[in-house]
Structures are given as C-alpha cells and as structure tokens.
Amino acid sequence: MAKELFKGSVLMGPLPAVLVTSVDAAGKVNVFTVGWTGIACTHPPMVTIAVRKERLSYENIKNTGEFVINLTTVEMLKMTDFCGCRSGRTVDKIKHFGLELDAGSDVNVPSLAKSPVSLECKVRSVTELGSHDLFLAEIVRNKVDKSIIDKDGKFDFAKAGLLAYCHGEYFSLARRPLATFGHSVAKKATRRANHLKRFQGQKKNNDGQ
Ligand SMILES: Cc1cc2nc3c(=O)[nH]c(=O)nc-3n(C[C@H](O)[C@H](O)[C@H](O)COP(=O)(O)O)c2cc1C
Prior knowledge:
Blueprint: E1 15-16, E2 18-23, E3 29-34, E4 37-41, E5 46-52, H1 56-64, E6 66-70, H2 77-82, H3 93-96, E7 101-102, E8 111-112, E9 117-128, E10 132-144, H4 157-160, E11 163-166, E12 169-172, H5 188-199, H6 202-206
Antiparallel strand pairs: 1-11, 2-3, 2-6, 4-5, 5-10, 6-9, 7-8, 9-10, 11-12
Bound molecules: flavin mononucleotide.
C-alpha cells in the first residue's frame, strides 16, 4: 500500500458524535455536540471529552463537575449537527427541539429521553492541552433503552441505529456487526455458536438499509 506522509494532526475516525448535557448554577440545561470523546478505563469506567474553554458547556461542566454523554442515532442527526453549530448562549437548544429530559439518577444533570444510551459522568480531572481541555470523568450510571436489550440481556447496538462522525461527515452504524470481539482467536464451534446466537433474526432488520 503506497502511503503519503502528512504532518501530525487528528486524523482519527470514525468517532461517536455524542450530545453532552450539562446544567448551569441555576439548573438550566444545555446540550452540545462532542466528537472528541473516548473510553479511558474499564475499571473504574472512565471516559474523556475534550472541550474548548469558550463553550457554554465548558463553564457548566467545570462548575458542577458533572455531565451526561448521550449517544445519538440517525433519527437525531439534525439536532446533533445543530447543537454543534449553535451555542446555548444564543439559543435554548432544549426548547428549540422540544427535547424531553429524564432526571439524573446519580448526577444532577438530566439525560435526553430520545438517546438510546446515556452515561452519567462525574469529572475526576481537567487537563489543559491547548485548543481543548480534557475532562476525564467516571461513569457512575448507565441508562439503556430497554428496546435495544435482547432476551439474553445483550445490547443490540445495530438496532439503535447509532450515529458516527468522521472528518466532517456523519455515518450510520445501523448495520449488522461484522464480527464479535475475540472471533479471530475463538475455536470454530464457539465462533459458530456465538455467531448464530448473536445475529439470528437480525438479517431481516438490515435488509434494504
Ligand atoms: C460533529 C461535531 C463535533 C464537535 N465536537 C466538539 C468537541 O469535541 N469539543 C468541543 O469543544 N466542541 C465540539 N464541537 C463544537 C460545539 O459542539 C459547538 O461549538 C457548540 O455550539 C457549543 O455549544 P455550547 O456553547 O452551548 O456549549 C463539535 C461540533 C460538531 C458539529
């Protein structure tokens, strides 16, 4: 494969385009779009979001030490883009889209009812990096839409129709997964059993997508 050399830049993708909710000192809710997010640790469950200081959300999160990461879906595409183009300083994005909110369980920040997966987070550290500050946070509660949990208690993320972002473009993840974690080293019989268990019945959903 012939490769060209570029100077170092953030050529990483796809990434989830998430909607992060936060509240100000008076409890007013704001929502903004974040692409610079990632899992940082399994135990304790930790995530990062990178936020520019000028965002209203930066102020909210820095002051309260809490936020909620709401995964987005294809259905939420327009609001995901809008909430990343307009600040809560000039428009009430919750009102603009008539967004239904679910009260926080372990944080004082609500989640978006429309989101299939919401992660309630408590900030553990803030690191100044340059254009963005990195918030490292612990996930203290997960809220998952019952309709994407199958009868064995497994999450069916393909069913959720999640949204991804890659270098200025949005993509749909509403497709059948290609394989499961560990399939390359699993024994053949286990592989087949896992495949059948996980993907049976999904083909119908994906036809015509
Ligand atoms: C797809 C997408 C991803 C974005 N990712 C980030 C991000 O990771 N960090 C950030 O500070 N701003 C990011 N933004 C920009 C903010 O969402 C945008 O400036 C927003 O209006 C800030 O809202 P607020 O002032 O209400 O907090 C992103 C925008 C889009 C459209």
